[in-house]
TrEMBL record:
Chain segments carrying region Disordered: 1-31
Basic residues bias (residue ranges): 1-17
Source species: Panagrellus redivivus
Protein name: DDE_3 domain-containing protein
Length: 147
């Protein structure tokens, strides 16, 4: 299916609507800077061909199991991608360099404990049955998030 809006009246070539200053990548220039990383180079070419600007400053390199994985400097479109020294948070899950979830569990349990504290402080009831039922209900929902 051909999109008629993206065609010019003079020919069949696609004219870019956005990012007119987004020129295609030159093969020799980027492959030398990437240092042999073909997948990063192909992603750079793909982003240029599809007019999708990628900001390398918002990206980061995570080295998992650093004693097995040598540290290299990666470049995207001539800009060095910074590496992260500590745990990485991706889609709400924190993973450390040695692939443990200890930091994620600490953060989730800290949030759950503070929420329980404020909930029990807001109830202000001395009845054990009321406090116990609220604690069970809230703790079951907060424990589900830890999993």
């Amino acid at each position: 299916m051909v999109d008629k809006r993206s065609r010019s009246k003079t020919g069949n070539k696609r004219t870019p609507k956005r990012h007119e200053n987004f020129s295609p990548v030159q093969t020799g220039q980027v492959s030398r800077r990437v240092g042999g990383n073909k997948s990063l180079f192909s992603f750079c070419v793909w982003s240029r061909e599809n007019y999708l600007p990628i900001t390398p400053d918002k990206c980061s390199v995570a080295y998992f199991l650093p004693y097995l994985n040598p540290k290299h400097e990666y470049f995207f479109d001539g800009t060095a991608i910074p590496s992260t020294p500590g745990p990485v948070c991706d889609l709400g899950v924190m993973i450390s360099n040695d692939l443990s979830y200890d930091e994620h569990i600490k953060v989730c349990s800290r949030k759950a404990n503070s929420a329980l504290y404020y909930l029990l402080k807001a109830i202000k009831s001395n009845k054990l049955y009321c406090t116990n039922s609220v604690y069970r209900y809230a703790f079951s929902h907060m424990f589900y998030k830890l999993l």
